[in-house]
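Incident log, structure service

09:12 report received: a user says their structure output differs between two submissions of the same chain.
09:20 pulled the input from the user's history:
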Amino acid sequence: MTDKKITGELEKFSYSLGMSIAGNLIKSGVSTISPEHFLEGITDTFNGQMPKIMPDEANRILEEFITKASKGQNDKNLEAGLQFLSENKKKAEVTELPSGLQYQILKEGSGEIPTFTDEVKCHYHGTLIDGTVFDSSVKRGQPAVFPVNGVIQGWVEALQLMSTGSKWRLFIPPGLAYGEQGAGGVIGPNTTLIFDVELLEIV
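09:34 re-ran on a clean worker, output below:
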């Protein structure tokens, strides 16, 4: 592949559009396509030629394929997360609650414990089970302030057990995170999440 520089407004727009479409397809669970037929569909449509697949049928094909691809990714994420949590709970330093939430105490604080209606200030660092970082107040250098009842269920449960000054590592199954919908980006459907959470203060 040649590293050809893209110049010209239309060329840059076209390349950017291709990136956007591919990114949206990947987020939908489509990991591969036939570039030849993809380009043929674009060319025929722009040239006003008779389509080889009628629009109604094309819409049905798209819906069925994306649904199938998305389900495959859902199942893959769920299976990987369940396997990880199953092994993780065997560690002596990890506690599993009845809800399925797992946690490890990295530092024990001595302050007050927040209630459901409190607002708290926290530092956090969130990763997938493969170590991919998706969000981090630590990296931004700015703690986050939010109501205890305004975050994902795994956080809501953990924060009401943590003393101020504590730092816990949370292992959150999808049912206590973003579930089958995911949250976009690298947080796909049925994704298990890991958070290092430091409860700085109740505000």
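09:41 both user submissions now match this output. Likely a transient worker issue. Closing.
09:42 reviewer note: The longest strand covers residues 119-128. The beta strands are 94-96, 102-107, 119-128, 133-136, 144-147, 167-172, 193-202.
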